[in-house]
Amino acid sequence: MSRSVWKGPYVSNHIIRIISGLRVKENRRKVYKVWSRSSVILPSLVGVRFLVHNGIKFIPVNVTSSMVGHKFGEFSSTRKKVIHKVKS
């Protein structure tokens, strides 16, 4: 089920503080660390670079307009890809 409309999108307090500091042009060039994978990407975050935590390390994510409405966790995989050994 989707989130009810009257509640609005979930955005963590850490990301709200980042948005309020983005008015200064120099702050748009910074890279921000995000631990909240469940936060929704808002239109005001387009063009900002984030490091999204996947549980072990931070994955770099450049926010584009096509990402608006999605969650940060969708862009950093938490699973390790399996590499099978080849018989020789």
UniProtKB/TrEMBL annotation:
Family membership noted in the UniProt record: Belongs to the universal ribosomal protein uS19 family.
SUPFAM superfamilies: Ribosomal protein S19
Ribonucleoprotein keyword on record: yes
Top-rank lineage group of the source organism: Eukaryota
Keyword annotations from UniProtKB, A to Z: Mitochondrion, Ribonucleoprotein, Ribosomal protein, RNA-binding, rRNA-binding
Gene Ontology molecular functions: rRNA binding; structural constituent of ribosome
Protein name per its UniProtKB record: Small ribosomal subunit protein uS19c
PANTHER family, sorted: RIBOSOMAL PROTEIN S19P FAMILY MEMBER (PTHR11880), SMALL RIBOSOMAL SUBUNIT PROTEIN US19M (PTHR11880:SF8)
Any single GO CC term annotated in Swiss-Prot or TrEMBL for this entry: mitochondrial small ribosomal subunit
Lineage, top ranks: Eukaryota, Discoba, Jakobida, Ophirinina, Ophirinidae
GO biological process: ribosomal small subunit assembly; translation
